[in-house]
Design goal:
The complex is a heterodimer. Chain A is an alpha/beta fold. Chain A has helices at residues 8-18, 30-33, 62-76, 99-105, and strands spanning 4-5, 22-23, 28-29, 36-42, 47-52, 81-87. Chain A has one domain (4-96): Fe-S cluster assembly (FSCA) (GMP Synthetase, Chain A, domain 3, 2-Layer Sandwich). Chain A has a 4-stranded mixed β-sheet. In chain A, strands 2-3 form a two-stranded antiparallel ribbon. In chain A, α1 (8-18) packs across α3 (62-76). The radius of gyration of chain A is 13 Å and the shape is globular. Chain B is an all-alpha fold. Chain B has helices at 13-36, 47-77, 84-107, 112-138, 144-172, 179-211, 218-240, 248-271, 280-291, 293-308, 313-349, 367-390, 393-418, and one strand at 2-3. The chains are: A alpha/beta, B mainly alpha. β6 (81-87) of chain A pairs antiparallel with β1 of chain B, so a sheet runs across the interface. Chain B: The chain crosses the membrane at residues 19-38, 50-73, 85-108, 114-134, 146-171, 191-212, 224-241, 247-267, 287-310, 316-337, 369-388, 394-419. Chain B: It comes from Panacibacter ginsenosidivorans. Chain B: Keywords: Membrane, Transmembrane, Transmembrane helix. Chain B: This is Cytochrome C oxidase subunit I.
């Protein structure tokens, strides 16, 4: 997983939690899908900033996936505000799926 | 560049679900008509055959495709649907117009029920065409699939406009010849222009997406688009200029070439898929791609027989049946259970996403019922087709019973999904 961050320990903790947020069509979690691009933690402002993408713009499940990421980060960082933003630059590609994700899909 | 989170908002389920419900009930009604009708063999221009055909093409095929395309157009064009109101109007006009038209054919009352029915259906299609055109015009991302959908909508309008002219021609003689003469023009604009173009266009996006396939070949899709449209335009010109039957082979060959390339496209998408396991819904959808070959063989046989002598009516009937109850029904049976569970899942579990385990969309319907539906469909379709070709009443009745079972099981699963209540594991 290639997620840019300013706090590697908190990032690992957040990603572990995001393994529970599943892309319902693929059946794979958003972290292994490679949908999470950036996780930054502003300790002074008590804010978690997540930059993520979707496999398709206007994906019928998109709103649920973004809400799932927001809800999950709120549970894991209850003292912080959570801000999830979407980007399609760069667009998601199949190569972004992690090795664990590929193994899961190859079963 | 950061996109607004509005880019996650797709067409609301309130727009889409009525189309699914209407289509499911129409399929059941058409299967009942097929079972109870005594006129399913012989010439295709008979009241019951026309009623069943229109219940299938409009109530089942067109309604579910209209619903699905309101949901999927934003994915294809990467932009929002222009208007929900137009989508509601499209549903309302079609929902009233279709039963009027089917009733008119069944009783062969070509006066007010057929005329009002035809006008309402045309109003529905105009709303759809405006919605599709405005949605595509507003979006910045042009792609081949949106061109497929737009062109299919134009062909649909041509089909229903010709249909309305044919209905009025029964009473007012507005066309130079009787309505039966123009039936093949009306039917082929609908079959190849609307259904084939739309299914290939949307399928070219959905099949790789659901298979999680890396395969993408825009150049091939443009060729498919050009071949199907060339075939259709050739057909229209040949019809208008009353060409000899031999020339229709060119039209059939263009469309056959387009279809062959689409089968190749689906094969490559399947070959280059990342997810190894292919679920039942995708299997039946892929089967439908192969089932396109059956009507094509019938069509080539019809043209060849026309060159030699005259065509047996049962071959024409088999051609139509293999399109509406074959290819079209198979792809809808498969794709319904790839799209509807997600729409309902989104509605029911949207607020719970990421807060704990929820059922997957695939858990919203019964796999046993789905398998029962698939088996009764494949066997029923085969029996009925053999029955038509061999004029065997037992095979026809067995096929009709099995297709009714398929429609019943389909409805059972659709309503199981629609009435799903929140259920955390």
């Amino acid at each position: 997983m290639n997620v840019s961050t300013n706090h590697s320990v908190k990032c690992m903790f957040a990603l572990a939690g995001l393994h529970d947020v599943i892309d319902p069509e693929v059946g794979l979690n958003v972290a292994d899908m490679g949908l999470i691009y950036q996780l930054n933690f502003d300790e002074e402002a008590r804010q978690v900033n997540c930059l993520m993408t979707l496999s398709t713009r206007f994906c019928p499940m998109g709103e649920s996936i973004v809400d799932g990421v927001t809800n999950n980060l709120k549970i894991n960082f209850p003292d912080s505000d959570v801000l999830v933003e979407l980007t399609f630059d760069p667009p998601w590609r199949y190569e972004m799926i992690s090795e664990e994700g590929r193994n899961f899909l190859n079963r | 560049m950061i996109a607004g989170n509005n880019d996650t908002r797709t067409t609301t389920h309130k727009v889409v679900l009525p189309f699914y419900i209407y289509a499911a009930l129409s399929f059941l009604a058409a299967a009942i008509l097929l079972f109870t009708s005594s006129q399913v063999t012989g010439h295709y221009f008979q009241p019951h055959t026309l009623a069943i055909t229109h219940a299938m093409t409009l109530g089942w095929g067109t309604m579910i495709i209209l619903g699905t395309s309101h949901q999927l157009l934003p994915v294809l064009i990467e932009g929002k649907l222009y208007s929900n109101t137009l989508a509601y109007l499209s549903f309302a006009f079609a929902a009233v117009g279709i039963p009027l038209l089917v009733y008119a054919f069944y009783t062969f009352n070509m006066r007010w029920p057929a005329q009002y029915g035809a006008m309402l259906i045309n109003a529905a299609i105009v709303c759809y065409l405006i919605n599709v055109s405005a949605s595509i015009a507003k979006c910045k991302h042009e792609n081949v699939q949106s061109v497929f959908v737009f062109t299919a909508a134009i062909w649909l309008f041509i089909t229903t406009a010709i249909g309305a002219l044919l209905v009025y021609n029964f009473t007012y003689n507005i066309l130079p010849r009787d309505s039966l003469h123009y039936l093949s023009l009306h039917a082929h604009a609908g079959i190849a222009g609307w259904f084939l173009l739309l299914v290939t266009g949307v399928g070219s996006r959905l099949i790789p997406m659901f298979l999680i396939s890396k395969y993408d070949n825009k150049k091939l899709l443009w060729r498919i688009y050009a071949l199907i449209n060339l075939g259709l335009i050739a057909f229209v010109l040949l019809f208008v200029y009353s060409a000899k039957p031999v020339f229709y082979l060119f039209s059939a060959l263009f469309i056959a070439a387009g279809l062959s390339l689409f089968v190749f496209y689906c094969y490559k998408a399947h070959q280059q898929r990342i997810r190894k396991r292919v679920d039942g819904q995708m299997k039946i959808s892929l089967l439908s791609v192969l089932m396109m070959i059956a009507p094509l063989i019938c069509l080539l046989l019809i043209v060849l027989l026309l060159l030699l002598s005259s065509v047996n009516g049962s071959l024409i009937l088999a051609y139509g049946f293999s399109i509406f109850f074959g290819w079209l029904t198979a792809i809808i049976l498969g794709m319904t259970f790839k799209t509807l569970p997600f729409i309902v899942w989104n509605k029911v579990y949207h607020a719970k996403a990421g807060l704990g385990k929820t059922p997957s969309p695939g858990d919203l319907f019964s796999k046993k019922i789905f398998n029962g539906m698939a088996i009764s469909y494949v066997v029923g379709f085969g029996c009925f087709l053999i029955g038509i070709l061999s004029a065997d009443d037992i095979a026809i009745k067995t096929g009709a019973i099995l297709l009714f079972c398929c429609a019943f099981l389909y409805n059972l699963n659709v309503f199981k999904i629609l009435f799903h209540k929140q259920n955390s594991k």
